[in-house]
Design goal:
Layout: E1 2-3, E2 18-19, E3 21-22, E4 36-37, H1 47-75, H2 89-108, H3 113-121, H4 130-133, H5 136-141, H6 158-162
Antiparallel strand pairs: 1-3, 2-4
Amino acid sequence: MWNSCSGGGAGPASADGFCYEYGASGGPIGGGGGPLPCSAGVPGFAGPYKVQRRAANIRERKRMMSINTAFEELRCHVPTFPFEKRLSKIDTLRLAIAYIALLREVLVSQYDPLTHIEKCLRGELKGEHAAEWNTSDLTARLSWINWENLGVNPNRRSVLTTLTLTADTIGCHNGTQ
């Protein structure tokens, strides 16, 4: 790759005073921003546009890395299947919203977490926020939650694997317990 400003002369190599970059094939490289003013005879000078663009690109890369790191951290805290590929960002957000609603409801419940979920899935409880969390996506993952981290007896975990969801029990509609 070469550009018209890196010619051997003291001034700009292009007749119109702009720098153009060319690839190995000799054709111009698309840049979207148009030609850049040449710096007359200053070797290694990138010009104000390139400096600003490079700084903006670095900021954007750092911003995206920060967002991606936050999503990776969030994926570690929502229930997933052990064999599942990485969730998309939108699926991660939706699952996190449902999981937070479930945890909020479990906290205010008078039952232990598994009993509360079991009763709600069977339609015995009408939780206030159950419609938010009682999605087939989350309920399928409930059996994979590390309940020990939530203080639940590990022997109770099998309760959720035996529950079957029917059209009547999916979604404890908004109401009170």
